[in-house]
Protein backbone atom coordinates (compact mmCIF):
# COMPACT_ATOMS: atom_id res chain seq x y z
CA UNK A 1 0.00 0.00 0.00
CA UNK A 2 1.33 3.48 -0.83
CA UNK A 3 1.85 6.15 1.78
CA UNK A 4 -1.06 8.55 1.41
CA UNK A 5 -2.21 11.65 3.24
CA UNK A 6 0.90 12.18 5.30
CA UNK A 7 -0.37 15.63 6.28
CA UNK A 8 -3.52 14.08 7.72
CA UNK A 9 -1.49 11.54 9.71
CA UNK A 10 0.71 14.14 11.39
CA UNK A 11 -0.48 14.99 14.86
CA UNK A 12 -2.59 18.13 14.54
CA UNK A 13 -0.40 20.38 16.70
CA UNK A 14 2.55 19.70 14.37
CA UNK A 15 0.77 20.22 11.05
CA UNK A 16 1.99 23.07 8.89
CA UNK A 17 5.47 23.46 10.34
CA UNK A 18 8.23 24.00 7.79
CA UNK A 19 11.92 23.16 8.21
CA UNK A 20 13.86 26.13 9.60
CA UNK A 21 15.35 28.19 6.80
CA UNK A 22 18.03 30.66 7.86
CA UNK A 23 17.95 32.07 4.29
CA UNK A 24 21.64 31.35 4.05
CA UNK A 25 23.51 31.91 0.82
CA UNK A 26 27.25 31.46 0.61
CA UNK A 27 28.76 34.95 0.83
CA UNK A 28 32.26 36.23 1.52
CA UNK A 29 30.99 38.27 4.45
CA UNK A 30 28.26 36.61 6.51
CA UNK A 31 26.73 38.99 9.05
CA UNK A 32 23.32 37.29 9.09
CA UNK A 33 23.17 34.93 12.08
CA UNK A 34 24.67 36.82 15.05
CA UNK A 35 27.63 34.50 15.16
CA UNK A 36 30.96 35.68 16.53
CA UNK A 37 33.06 36.10 13.39
CA UNK A 38 36.34 36.87 15.18
CA UNK A 39 38.98 34.12 15.02
CA UNK A 40 39.75 32.52 18.39
CA UNK A 41 43.34 32.66 19.69
CA UNK A 42 45.49 29.78 18.41
CA UNK A 43 46.23 28.63 21.97
CA UNK A 44 42.50 28.23 22.64
CA UNK A 45 41.95 26.28 19.42
CA UNK A 46 44.85 23.99 20.36
CA UNK A 47 43.23 23.26 23.71
CA UNK A 48 39.99 22.38 21.92
CA UNK A 49 41.85 20.04 19.58
CA UNK A 50 43.69 18.39 22.48
CA UNK A 51 40.43 17.92 24.38
CA UNK A 52 38.79 16.28 21.35
CA UNK A 53 41.81 14.03 20.76
CA UNK A 54 41.64 12.84 24.38
CA UNK A 55 37.92 12.01 24.18
CA UNK A 56 36.93 8.41 23.34
CA UNK A 57 34.04 8.28 20.87
CA UNK A 58 33.02 4.67 21.54
CA UNK A 59 31.52 5.49 24.94
CA UNK A 60 28.24 7.26 25.59
CA UNK A 61 28.40 10.79 27.00
CA UNK A 62 27.81 11.62 30.65
CA UNK A 63 24.06 12.39 30.27
CA UNK A 64 24.12 15.50 32.46
CA UNK A 65 27.62 16.66 31.42
CA UNK A 66 28.69 17.00 35.03
CA UNK A 67 32.24 18.17 34.39
CA UNK A 68 30.92 20.99 32.23
CA UNK A 69 28.13 21.68 34.72
CA UNK A 70 30.71 22.05 37.49
CA UNK A 71 32.74 24.47 35.39
CA UNK A 72 29.64 26.57 34.68
CA UNK A 73 28.50 26.37 38.31
CA UNK A 74 31.89 27.60 39.56
CA UNK A 75 31.85 30.48 37.08
CA UNK A 76 28.37 31.65 38.09
CA UNK A 77 28.71 30.93 41.80
CA UNK A 78 25.87 28.40 41.95
CA UNK A 79 25.62 24.70 42.77
CA UNK A 80 25.86 22.03 40.07
CA UNK A 81 22.21 21.21 40.83
CA UNK A 82 21.21 24.67 39.54
CA UNK A 83 22.72 24.11 36.07
CA UNK A 84 21.39 22.17 33.08
CA UNK A 85 23.28 21.84 29.80
CA UNK A 86 21.51 21.47 26.46
CA UNK A 87 22.18 20.92 22.77
CA UNK A 88 22.10 24.66 22.21
CA UNK A 89 19.86 27.00 24.14
CA UNK A 90 17.14 25.92 21.72
CA UNK A 91 16.88 22.46 23.26
CA UNK A 92 16.44 23.94 26.71
CA UNK A 93 13.77 26.36 25.50
CA UNK A 94 11.85 23.48 23.95
CA UNK A 95 12.22 21.30 27.03
CA UNK A 96 11.04 24.13 29.29
CA UNK A 97 7.83 24.59 27.33
CA UNK A 98 7.44 20.81 26.95
CA UNK A 99 7.74 20.49 30.74
CA UNK A 100 5.81 23.47 32.04
CA UNK A 101 3.46 24.34 29.17
CA UNK A 102 0.87 22.16 27.46
CA UNK A 103 -2.85 22.25 26.69
CA UNK A 104 -4.75 24.83 28.73
CA UNK A 105 -1.59 26.72 29.66
CA UNK A 106 -0.06 29.79 28.11
CA UNK A 107 3.30 31.27 27.26
CA UNK A 108 3.65 35.07 27.26
CA UNK A 109 6.16 36.63 24.85
CA UNK A 110 7.04 40.21 23.86
CA UNK A 111 7.44 40.31 20.08
CA UNK A 112 9.24 41.19 17.92
CA UNK A 113 11.44 38.59 19.62
CA UNK A 114 12.99 35.17 18.97
CA UNK A 115 10.51 33.25 16.81
CA UNK A 116 11.38 29.86 18.29
CA UNK A 117 9.48 30.56 21.54
CA UNK A 118 6.22 30.63 19.63
CA UNK A 119 7.07 27.65 17.43
CA UNK A 120 8.01 25.48 20.39
CA UNK A 121 4.85 26.52 22.26
CA UNK A 122 2.67 25.55 19.32
CA UNK A 123 4.40 22.17 19.05
CA UNK A 124 3.68 21.64 22.74
CA UNK A 125 0.02 22.72 22.36
CA UNK A 126 0.65 25.72 24.57
CA UNK A 127 -1.29 28.95 23.96
CA UNK A 128 0.85 31.92 23.02
CA UNK A 129 -0.04 35.39 24.31
CA UNK A 130 1.80 38.08 22.40
CA UNK A 131 2.32 41.43 24.13
CA UNK A 132 3.65 43.58 21.30
CA UNK A 133 6.40 46.10 21.89
CA UNK A 134 6.02 49.82 21.24
CA UNK A 135 6.07 50.25 17.43
CA UNK A 136 8.61 53.09 17.55
CA UNK A 137 10.94 52.40 20.47
CA UNK A 138 10.48 48.60 20.18
CA UNK A 139 10.66 48.47 23.99
CA UNK A 140 8.37 46.10 25.92
CA UNK A 141 5.09 47.24 27.47
CA UNK A 142 5.72 46.54 31.16
CA UNK A 143 2.16 46.91 32.48
CA UNK A 144 0.66 44.78 29.70
CA UNK A 145 3.30 42.08 30.19
CA UNK A 146 2.70 41.89 33.93
CA UNK A 147 -1.07 41.72 33.34
CA UNK A 148 -0.72 38.95 30.77
CA UNK A 149 1.73 37.03 32.97
CA UNK A 150 -0.80 36.84 35.82
CA UNK A 151 -2.66 34.16 33.82
CA UNK A 152 0.42 32.48 32.29
CA UNK A 153 2.43 29.36 32.99
CA UNK A 154 5.65 30.84 31.54
CA UNK A 155 6.87 34.28 30.44
CA UNK A 156 9.87 34.50 28.11
CA UNK A 157 11.83 37.74 28.12
CA UNK A 158 14.96 38.20 26.00
CA UNK A 159 17.76 40.39 27.32
CA UNK A 160 19.31 41.74 25.17
CA UNK A 161 16.38 41.07 22.86
CA UNK A 162 16.81 39.57 19.40
CA UNK A 163 16.29 41.33 16.97
CA UNK A 164 15.80 44.71 18.72
CA UNK A 165 18.99 44.74 20.85
CA UNK A 166 17.59 46.27 24.07
CA UNK A 167 18.48 45.03 27.52
CA UNK A 168 15.48 44.36 29.76
CA UNK A 169 14.81 46.83 32.56
CA UNK A 170 15.39 44.74 35.69
CA UNK A 171 12.32 46.44 37.22
CA UNK A 172 10.19 44.49 34.72
CA UNK A 173 11.70 41.19 35.86
CA UNK A 174 11.18 42.28 39.48
CA UNK A 175 7.49 42.96 38.81
CA UNK A 176 7.00 39.66 36.97
CA UNK A 177 8.45 37.83 39.97
CA UNK A 178 6.60 39.84 42.62
CA UNK A 179 3.20 40.33 41.00
CA UNK A 180 2.65 37.06 39.12
CA UNK A 181 3.01 33.35 39.75
CA UNK A 182 4.46 32.53 36.31
CA UNK A 183 7.81 30.91 35.64
CA UNK A 184 10.04 33.66 34.21
CA UNK A 185 12.58 32.63 31.59
CA UNK A 186 15.15 35.32 30.97
CA UNK A 187 16.97 34.56 27.72
CA UNK A 188 20.47 36.02 28.06
CA UNK A 189 21.92 34.56 24.84
CA UNK A 190 23.70 37.89 24.12
CA UNK A 191 24.28 39.21 27.62
CA UNK A 192 28.10 39.02 27.45
CA UNK A 193 27.95 41.95 24.99
CA UNK A 194 25.99 44.09 27.47
CA UNK A 195 28.63 44.35 30.19
CA UNK A 196 29.39 42.63 33.46
CA UNK A 197 26.42 44.09 35.36
CA UNK A 198 23.78 43.14 32.79
CA UNK A 199 23.10 39.54 33.78
CA UNK A 200 20.46 38.64 36.35
CA UNK A 201 21.93 35.18 37.05
CA UNK A 202 22.65 36.34 40.59
CA UNK A 203 18.90 36.76 41.17
CA UNK A 204 18.14 33.06 40.67
CA UNK A 205 19.12 31.97 44.18
CA UNK A 206 16.59 34.28 45.86
CA UNK A 207 13.92 33.95 43.14
CA UNK A 208 13.11 30.30 42.48
CA UNK A 209 10.69 31.07 39.62
CA UNK A 210 13.44 32.85 37.64
CA UNK A 211 15.35 30.80 35.07
CA UNK A 212 18.25 32.25 33.07
CA UNK A 213 19.24 30.85 29.67
CA UNK A 214 22.77 31.30 28.34
CA UNK A 215 24.62 29.89 25.34
CA UNK A 216 28.12 29.36 23.99
CA UNK A 217 26.84 30.13 20.47
CA UNK A 218 27.29 33.89 20.52
CA UNK A 219 30.05 35.46 22.67
CA UNK A 220 32.01 32.18 22.84
CA UNK A 221 32.08 31.79 19.04
CA UNK A 222 30.83 28.18 19.29
CA UNK A 223 27.51 28.24 17.41
CA UNK A 224 28.44 25.05 15.58
CA UNK A 225 29.19 23.15 18.79
CA UNK A 226 25.58 23.28 20.06
CA UNK A 227 25.88 24.06 23.74
CA UNK A 228 23.58 26.18 25.87
CA UNK A 229 22.79 26.11 29.57
CA UNK A 230 20.13 27.09 32.02
CA UNK A 231 20.59 28.38 35.55
CA UNK A 232 17.49 27.76 37.63
CA UNK A 233 16.14 26.37 40.86
CA UNK A 234 17.25 22.74 41.42
CA UNK A 235 13.59 21.63 41.33
CA UNK A 236 13.25 23.02 37.81
CA UNK A 237 16.55 21.42 36.79
CA UNK A 238 15.34 18.06 38.14
CA UNK A 239 12.25 18.21 35.90
CA UNK A 240 14.36 19.05 32.85
CA UNK A 241 16.82 16.29 33.73
CA UNK A 242 14.01 13.76 33.78
CA UNK A 243 12.42 14.58 30.41
CA UNK A 244 15.45 15.39 28.26
CA UNK A 245 16.85 13.35 25.37
CA UNK A 246 19.39 11.51 27.47
CA UNK A 247 22.46 11.90 25.26
CA UNK A 248 21.70 15.20 23.55
CA UNK A 249 25.03 16.75 24.53
CA UNK A 250 27.70 14.71 22.77
CA UNK A 251 31.17 13.95 24.14
CA UNK A 252 33.01 16.35 21.81
CA UNK A 253 30.68 19.22 22.66
CA UNK A 254 31.11 18.52 26.36
CA UNK A 255 34.90 18.38 26.04
CA UNK A 256 35.24 21.57 24.00
CA UNK A 257 32.65 23.51 26.02
CA UNK A 258 34.42 22.61 29.27
CA UNK A 259 37.68 24.05 27.89
CA UNK A 260 35.91 27.12 26.52
CA UNK A 261 34.38 27.98 29.89
CA UNK A 262 37.71 27.40 31.61
CA UNK A 263 39.46 29.70 29.08
CA UNK A 264 36.73 32.36 29.06
CA UNK A 265 39.14 35.15 30.05
CA UNK A 266 40.80 34.70 26.63
CA UNK A 267 37.54 35.75 24.98
CA UNK A 268 37.19 39.05 26.83
CA UNK A 269 39.27 41.07 24.31
CA UNK A 270 37.16 39.73 21.43
CA UNK A 271 33.91 40.69 23.15
CA UNK A 272 35.37 44.14 23.94
CA UNK A 273 36.31 44.57 20.29
CA UNK A 274 32.79 43.66 19.14
CA UNK A 275 31.33 46.17 21.61
CA UNK A 276 33.63 48.92 20.27
CA UNK A 277 32.83 47.96 16.67
CA UNK A 278 29.10 48.01 17.49
CA UNK A 279 29.31 51.67 18.50
CA UNK A 280 31.18 52.66 15.36
CA UNK A 281 28.96 50.60 13.06
CA UNK A 282 25.80 52.07 14.63
CA UNK A 283 27.07 55.59 13.92
CA UNK A 284 27.98 54.73 10.34
CA UNK A 285 24.65 53.02 9.65
CA UNK A 286 22.73 55.95 11.14
CA UNK A 287 24.36 58.27 8.58
CA UNK A 288 22.81 56.37 5.65
CA UNK A 289 19.98 58.37 4.04
CA UNK A 290 16.64 57.64 5.72
CA UNK A 291 18.16 55.16 8.18
CA UNK A 292 17.10 54.56 11.76
CA UNK A 293 19.29 52.41 14.05
CA UNK A 294 18.00 51.15 17.39
CA UNK A 295 20.41 51.20 20.36
CA UNK A 296 21.84 47.71 20.90
CA UNK A 297 23.49 45.92 23.81
CA UNK A 298 24.07 42.78 21.71
CA UNK A 299 26.41 41.79 18.85
CA UNK A 300 23.98 43.00 16.19
CA UNK A 301 22.15 46.12 15.13
CA UNK A 302 18.59 46.54 13.87
CA UNK A 303 18.40 49.15 11.15
CA UNK A 304 15.41 50.52 9.23
CA UNK A 305 16.26 51.57 5.68
CA UNK A 306 14.16 52.55 2.67
CA UNK A 307 13.60 49.47 0.45
CA UNK A 308 15.37 47.20 2.92
CA UNK A 309 14.53 43.92 1.16
CA UNK A 310 15.98 45.20 -2.12
CA UNK A 311 19.05 46.58 -0.36
CA UNK A 312 19.60 43.23 1.33
CA UNK A 313 19.30 41.28 -1.95
CA UNK A 314 21.74 43.63 -3.69
CA UNK A 315 24.26 43.39 -0.83
CA UNK A 316 24.12 39.63 -1.27
CA UNK A 317 24.11 39.42 -5.06
CA UNK A 318 26.40 42.31 -5.99
CA UNK A 319 28.74 42.52 -2.99
CA UNK A 320 28.71 39.04 -1.41
CA UNK A 321 27.63 40.47 1.95
CA UNK A 322 24.83 38.66 3.80
CA UNK A 323 22.62 40.33 6.43
CA UNK A 324 19.24 39.19 7.82
CA UNK A 325 16.01 40.46 6.33
CA UNK A 326 13.26 41.24 8.84
CA UNK A 327 11.27 43.47 6.51
CA UNK A 328 8.56 40.82 6.18
CA UNK A 329 8.11 40.51 9.96
CA UNK A 330 5.23 42.14 11.79
CA UNK A 331 6.33 45.44 13.33
CA UNK A 332 9.66 45.43 11.49
CA UNK A 333 8.83 46.84 8.05
CA UNK A 334 11.99 47.79 6.16
CA UNK A 335 14.22 46.41 8.93
CA UNK A 336 17.48 44.51 8.51
CA UNK A 337 19.49 42.89 11.28
CA UNK A 338 23.22 43.21 10.91
CA UNK A 339 25.67 41.19 12.96
CA UNK A 340 28.66 43.19 14.18
CA UNK A 341 31.67 41.56 12.53
CA UNK A 342 35.38 42.24 12.53
CA UNK A 343 36.55 45.72 11.58
CA UNK A 344 37.34 44.49 8.05
CA UNK A 345 33.90 42.86 7.66
CA UNK A 346 32.12 45.97 8.92
CA UNK A 347 34.08 48.03 6.41
CA UNK A 348 33.01 45.65 3.63
CA UNK A 349 29.40 46.03 4.71
CA UNK A 350 29.56 49.82 4.80
CA UNK A 351 31.30 50.07 1.44
CA UNK A 352 28.66 47.79 -0.07
CA UNK A 353 25.84 49.79 1.52
CA UNK A 354 27.31 53.04 0.24
CA UNK A 355 27.33 51.58 -3.26
CA UNK A 356 23.78 50.24 -3.00
CA UNK A 357 22.07 53.09 -1.17
CA UNK A 358 21.97 56.15 -3.39
CA UNK A 359 23.91 59.01 -1.86
CA UNK A 360 25.15 56.86 1.02
CA UNK A 361 28.68 57.31 2.34
CA UNK A 362 30.67 54.57 4.03
C1 LIG B 1 20.92 32.44 19.41
C2 LIG B 1 19.82 32.52 20.41
C3 LIG B 1 19.56 31.50 21.35
C4 LIG B 1 20.28 30.20 21.49
O1 LIG B 1 20.90 29.72 20.42
P1 LIG B 1 21.61 28.29 20.50
O2 LIG B 1 22.56 28.33 19.37
O3 LIG B 1 20.53 27.26 20.34
O4 LIG B 1 22.27 28.18 21.83
C5 LIG B 1 18.55 31.68 22.27
N1 LIG B 1 17.83 32.79 22.26
C6 LIG B 1 18.03 33.78 21.41
C7 LIG B 1 17.21 35.00 21.50
C8 LIG B 1 19.03 33.68 20.43
O5 LIG B 1 19.18 34.67 19.54
Structure description:
The protein has helices spanning 6-9, 42-53, 66-76, 88-100, 116-123, 142-149, 170-179, 234-243, 251-262, 268-286, 308-319, 343-356; strands at residues 29-30, 83-86, 106-109, 127-130, 154-158, 183-187, 210-215, 228-231, 292-293, 300-304, 321-322, 324-325, 335-339. The chain is of the alpha/beta class and 362 residues long. The chain has two domains: 24-40 and 266-358, Aspartate Aminotransferase, domain 1; 42-263, 3-Layer(aba) Sandwich (Aspartate Aminotransferase, domain 2). It has a seven-stranded mixed β-sheet with strand order 2-8-7-6-5-3-4, with helices on both faces. The chain has a four-stranded antiparallel β-sheet with strand order 9-10-13-12, covered by helices on one side. A two-stranded parallel ribbon has the order 1-11. α3 (66-76) runs parallel beside α9 (251-262), α6 (142-149) packs parallel to α7 and α11 (308-319) crosses α12. It is globular, with a radius of gyration of 21 Å. Bound molecules: pyridoxal-5'-phosphate. The site of pyridoxal-5'-phosphate (PLP) has 13 residues, from α4.
